[in-house]
Amino acid sequence: MARGPRPQHVVRLTAQEYAQLQHLARLRKAPHAQVVRAKILVLAYEHPNWDNATIARKGGCAVSTVRKWRAASSRGPVLEEAPRPGAPRFFSLPRARSDHRAGLHPAAGVW
To answer: 87-103, pLDDT tens digit by residue?
Structure first.
């Protein structure tokens, strides 16, 4: 099935990591991104000679996604995104409008 050059990054897993990833790849109520990443790592571990395009086809994702997570997990399984640079996001909430005249109530949506 391999078409291109051999993959640069080989995924190495322990038996326990492999079992955990298989379990996560089968979950229905887990974050979708983690399930896709687990599928990528399981397929890359089970078929080390498959190219990234084949794993992407079988895993239902883009080739760039396979390339990224295969490279990130070459020393061990990684399922979480790296922290993004910069300051944390800050959103200010709008002030609640209070108008207690003549029976107007903000919770009812009547102003």
So the answer is: 877 777 776 665 555 55
Nearest to 40 by CA among 75, 84, 79: 79
Decide: 52 and 67 in contact? Cβ < 8 Å: yes
Among 15, 10, 40, which Cα is nearest to 25's?
40
Tens-digit pLDDT profile for residues 27-84: 999 888 889 999 999 999 999 889 999 999 998 999 999 988 888 887 777 777 777 7
**Where do the domains of the chain lie?**
15-72
Distance in angstroms (rounded) separating the CA atoms of residues 65 and 11: 15
List, in sequence order, the alpha helices (H) in 1-111. Answer: 15-26, 32-46, 52-59, 63-72
Distance, in Å, from the CA atom of 38 to the CA atom of 19, rounded to the nearest integer, reads 11
| Residue 102 DSSP code | G
C-alpha to C-alpha distance for 35 and 60, rounded to whole angstroms: 11
CB-based contact 110:104 (threshold 8 Å): yes
